[in-house]
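Our consortium's second objective concerns turning raw sequence data into structural hypotheses that experimental partners can test. To show how far this objective has progressed, the report includes one record in full. It was chosen at random from the queue rather than selected for favorable results. The single chain below, 119 residues long, was entered without modification.
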Amino acid sequence: MSTTKKASAQRLQRDKLRFPIEKDVCYLCVKRGRISAVGVGKTFQISSREVRFTTQDPLMRGERVRLAVDWPAMLGDACLMKLEIHGSVIRSLPGAAAVDIARYEFRTRGATLGLPHSR
């Protein structure tokens, strides 16, 4: 298989694994140990390696980011959940960013990140 066909096949496979999930998200960016940006937005695409979301301001590529995503599943049909993601900005445009997921965990929404939350 040629290099071009391989790259195209990898791109198609990667695209199949992205899910169009639109949920509220709060984000906090850290640069040199200091908070450089805080905001709210909405996710629009999530995969096992990356999350894409809207932003209030452009984020800097390479910045470390913590995200808190309102998750649609509930714990025991009674407790709201959130998905906490830690990663780095890999792409940024005015109004949107993509973050490479370094680690994640599901938590109850009662446990806070100290981020603003839109309601």
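The partners drew two points from this record. The longest helix spans residues 3-16. The radius of gyration is 15 Å. Both points have been shared with the crystallography group to help prioritize constructs.
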